[in-house]
Every structure is written in C-alpha cells, then in structure tokens.
Write a structure and sequence with these properties.
- The structure is a single chain.
- The protein has a 4-stranded antiparallel sheet. It has a two-stranded antiparallel sheet with strand order 4-5.
- Helix 2 packs parallel to helix 3 (about 65-105).
- It contains 6 helices and 6 strands; from the N terminus they run H-H-H-H-E-H-E-H-E-E-E-E.
- It has helices spanning about 5-15, 20-50, 65-105, 110-125, 145-150, 165-175; strands at about 135-140, 155-165, 185-190, 195-200, 205, 210-220.
- The chain has 2 domains: about 5-60, no CATH class; about 110-220, Alpha-Beta Plaits, CATH 3.30.70.
- With about 230 residues, it is an alpha+beta fold.
- The radius of gyration is 46 Å and the shape is rod-shaped.
- About 50% of the residues lie in helices and about 20% in strands.
C-alpha cells in the first residue's frame, strides 16, 4: 500500500536526518504531545474542581466542582433538619398540651370574684375533726405594673386573714395549693394565739392563731389572641 505523498516526503526527510536527530524526533514528539494533552486536561479540571473519580494530578482546587460540593453539603444539612421534624413536632404538641392545661387552671378576667368565693369556701370546708379555721376577710389586690398590663396574664393577689389552730391552718393552705384553679401562697405571717390558764381544771387553753397571707394567681385575659376577657 503506497503512502500519501506528504507522509512519504516526511519519512524520506526523517531517514535523511543523522541518527542523533532521529532519536530526538522519535522521543521528543510523543513527549510534546503528552505535555500538550496534560495542559489542556489541567485547565478543564480547574474549572470543574476536585472529583474523586479523577486522579489528583488532573484536578485543581476550587472551581465549579467545589460549588457543586458546597450545594450538596447544604442539601444534606437541610435533609438532616427534615429528618428531625417529627421529633420537634412531638415536642411542640407536648408544649401546646401543657399550655392548654395551664390556661385551663388560670382564672379569666370575669372570674376574679369567683376565685374569692373559692378561697372562702375552702375555709368553710375544713373538717372539724381535722382542725379549725375561721375566715376573717379576703381582699383583692391587682398589680399596677405597666408590663403586667401588656401581657396576656395579670397578677391578682387575694389578701386573706384567718383564725385557726395549727392543724386547720396547714389543711387550709394545702387545700388552696391543690385547688383545680391555680393559686399559691406568696407571703405568710402568723401571730400566735393567746394562752390562758383554766384554774378550775388546772389546764392551759390555747387561743386561735391569727394568720395573714397573700394568695397569688394570674388572671388570663388573652388580649393578643383576640379573646374576650
């Protein structure tokens, strides 16, 4: 098979070269082609960045591939958040239940008077075989703090005075704090009852103790929710 004239001319010129130049052409041309290919590959790899499937010698830091990796990391981070969603929803539902129970225990604005009636009724319901409690007075004191007016909840204090023996007083406080509507004893002062001697029987008679305490609750108004006080 005859070679094309151009290739035949190159072959003739190659054969006419001295032996040393023939060796230079024989080894130099493939080396030049390899270096040219490596340069072009290195330039393209710099635009794509690092790829685990490409040898490190052909890759360069940064570039489009790094941008792709950054986006993938962001997607994975969001996927992790999505996977945690059921847990957060369960915690939120639990908090909503707790809030609902707390709101049920708090009196409404219109129930301030009925709360005083509860305080009076609990004093009358102390069993005689447990102790003695005599209610003297219950006064309603409302907080005047500006911050208190901006909230859904306002502090209301029931200043209560009673007479009773120690067993009756303890039972009464326990009934107050275990009541279905939220109340707590914020302050407490006790004046010990008088002690008198019964000369006829030769015994001592103990008078009832005088107690003054502030019972605090939080009236729920729900102004920000559009509720009706």
């Amino acid at each position: 098979m005859a070679l094309p004239p151009s290739i035949a001319a190159l072959a003739a010129r190659y054969k006419a070269l001295p032996r040393q130049q023939q060796l230079v052409v024989l080894f130099g041309l493939p080396a030049a082609l390899f270096l040219g290919f490596a340069y072009l590959t290195y330039d393209v790899a710099g635009k794509l960045g690092k790829d685990e499937g490409v040898p490190a010698i052909l890759t360069r830091p940064g570039g489009k591939w790094q941008e792709i990796r950054d986006v993938e990391d962001q997607i994975r981070a969001k996927d992790d958040i999505i996977k945690e969603r059921p847990k957060y929803e369960k915690e939120l539902a639990s908090l909503k239940d707790d809030i609902a129970m707390a709101e049920e225990r708090l009196p409404r604005e219109a129930e301030k008077a009925s709360m005083r009636e509860i305080i009076e009724r609990l004093a009358r319901e102390i069993p005689a075989d447990v102790g003695t409690v005599q209610l003297k007075s219950v006064r309603i004191l409302e907080a005047t703090d500006d911050r208190n007016n901006k909230s859904d909840y306002r502090t209301v204090t029931y200043q209560t005075e009673i007479l009773g023996n120690m067993n009756g007083i303890i039972k009464y406080i326990d009934s107050i704090e275990k009541n279905s509507r939220f109340m707590t004893v914020n302050s407490f002062s006790l004046r010990v009852g008088d002690i008198t001697a019964d000369a006829k029987n030769g015994s001592l008679a103990y008078g009832l103790h005088q107690v003054r305490m502030d019972l605090v609750t939080y009236v729920y108004s729900a102004k920000s929710k559009g509720g009706t006080p």
